[in-house]
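Hi P.,

Sorry for the delay on this. The queue was packed all week, but I finally got your sequence through. Input first:
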Amino acid sequence: MRTLLRLRSSRNVRFWSLHTAGWLAYGLAVYFGFLFYKRPAGLGSAIAVAAAAGFVLSIPMRYIYRGIWGRGERWIIPAVLATSYVTALGLRIIINLDIRHFIDPKPFSSPFDLFEGALMSTYLLLCWSGLYLGIKYYESKQQQQAAVLRAVTLAQEAQLKMLRYQLNPHFLFNTLNAISTLILDNQNRTANHAVMRLSEFLRYTLDQDPMKRVTLRQEIEALDLYLGTERLRFGERLRLEYAVEGAALDALVPSLLLQPILENALKYAVSPREQGGMVRIEGRARGAMLEISVIDDGPGLEDGSRPGERRGGVGLRNTRERLAVLYGDSYRFAVLSSRPGLRVDMALPFETAAREEAAPRAAEPLCPRTVHIPQGAGA
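Then the structure:
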């Protein structure tokens, strides 16, 4: 309601400003037009009255045009012609009486002299009508475009939330199974730690808006929350490496971008193998792009299968769709066989958050460092 009131208020301000400026310009143009001729006495008063009459008589035209707006050309064109002509007749009566009063007091030879110059005034009011309808049409198109953009934005937000929230039940199912196993094995203290770490991660996921972007440094910290629950399942079977350049750590990425990819790697490269596996996360700045890779040493793609057929699942598919919604054609996403293992490569536009209070970070490489997840480390 407030937005509608502000919109109407701004429209009124624009109309009255342009309406006043237009009739002032008309009066000045007529006045200066007489500079090349002998200026009769009373010319200024006559022009002022004519401009004021035009200002007043053209106001009802606005409300007439608002009433017929949107009815199509069959209504608008005849209505504009008729309204302009009728208004011009009234304007000419006032102007001609004005001339007889201030400039030339001779009497009218016939009643039709009252309407002398009506055609010229009709052209003037047709120009007024064209400007009014043109501005109204432009504003209407702008409002339609704004409505379309709002609808697209809302649709994108809804799609992103759907893609994000599809991932949580899958992750929650696996984690709760692990906690259930700990309880059955009477490892209650460890299970309690697991529940606490799970609650921390779920709180983080709920607090993060799917439309929000975080730095890659914050994204890695979120992964540590996630790994706090996964370490209960895999222990030393999970080996994690980071090789992220310092310059890339401050780049912005969609929140929780890497979690589904890492979960996919754990599912196929670590979980099914007794010896476990290694997952490596790389990040680097290359020109205007931020390149991120998640690499594992698992079985990779089966021979003859397309990327994502065997190891795609919800995680990789939703991540690709999420990037498409956020970046359009300005991203790259590839799932490749690294022999052994699988490699997921992403390239996003390199953007950083403005931090006036923070000094620039040195572009020193962080890592490679290897993180071993010890068995039973609960918190």
